[in-house]
Design brief:
This protein is an alpha/beta fold. The protein has a domain of 139 residues: Lumazine/riboflavin synthase (Rossmann fold, 3-Layer(aba) Sandwich), CATH 3.40.50. Helix content is 35%, strand content 13%. Strands 2-1-3-4 form a four-stranded parallel sheet, with helices on both faces. Strand 1, helix 2 and strand 2 form a beta-alpha-beta unit. The longest helix is centred in the last third of the chain and has 24 residues. The N and C termini lie far apart (103 Å).
């Protein structure tokens, strides 16, 4: 038998290793499993299972302290004209976004005669169409609807980024509110839970149009 080198073990293990002849071995209590090291902790999975943490939103309502003047718009479509630019690409999704936006506009008081829908080939063309409609000065706001789905090439980031920045530029250059109703999806199945984005974009456009109208009225007084 080779001699054991006790110097390599910590003191607590040295004590447990010593057995007295004629006595039973001490019982070893089961230990709870060790918590995984930080490196081994898996990131929370999103509903799509893509490895990204699910998006979260802060709870609670926005509150303005009392005593301040407030200019705040409401999604009121009475006597307002609205332009809608919508992508034909991924039409199964964009058709439903358009339906949701039209239903919301009708509920807000916008008549069908006051709505112009301009279809364009894809999301990349949305900014140019939004700019063209806004420059006519016929519309209180522009609603942009589209859908970009991630594929195997970097086109997703390019198209989504250019659509967002281009639509913002159209609003900044013309002063006409342009709302963003473009879905950016990892896979088509995610669209079912996000179709309310069409209605949300319609409400956003009307709210911004209303607050701009109030601002012009206040400035003229």
């Amino acid at each position: 038998m080779t001699e054991r080198d006790w110097s390599d073990e910590p003191p607590e293990q040295r004590q447990e290793s010593v057995l007295v002849p004629g006595e039973p071995a001490p019982a070893v209590e089961p230990q709870p499993p060790a918590a995984p090291e930080e490196e081994g902790v898996a990131a929370p999975q999103s509903p799509a299972g893509n490895g990204r943490a699910p998006a979260e939103h802060s709870d609670g309502d926005f509150v303005i302290p009392a005593g301040y003047g407030v200019l705040e718009g409401a999604p009121n479509g009475t006597r307002r004209s609205v332009g809608i630019v919508v992508s034909r690409f991924n039409g199964g999704v964009t058709t439903r976004l358009l339906e949701a936006a039209l239903a919301e506009l009708e509920e807000a008081g916008v008549t069908r005669e006051a709505i112009t829908v301009m279809p364009v080939p894809g999301a990349f063309e949305l900014p140019l169409a939004a700019m063209a409609l806004a420059k006519t000065r016929r519309y209180a706001c522009i609603v942009a609807l589209g859908c970009v789905i991630r594929g195997d090439t970097p086109h997703f980031d390019l198209v989504a980024g250019e659509a967002a920045s281009g639509l913002q530029l159209a609003a900044l250059e013309t002063g006409v509110p342009v709302s963003f109703g473009v879905l950016t999806l990892e896979e088509p199945a995610q669209a079912d839970d996000r179709l309310a984005k069409g209605a949300e974009a319609a409400r956003t456009g009307l709210e911004m149009a209303d607050v701009f109208s109030q601002l012009r009225a206040a400035a003229s007084r």
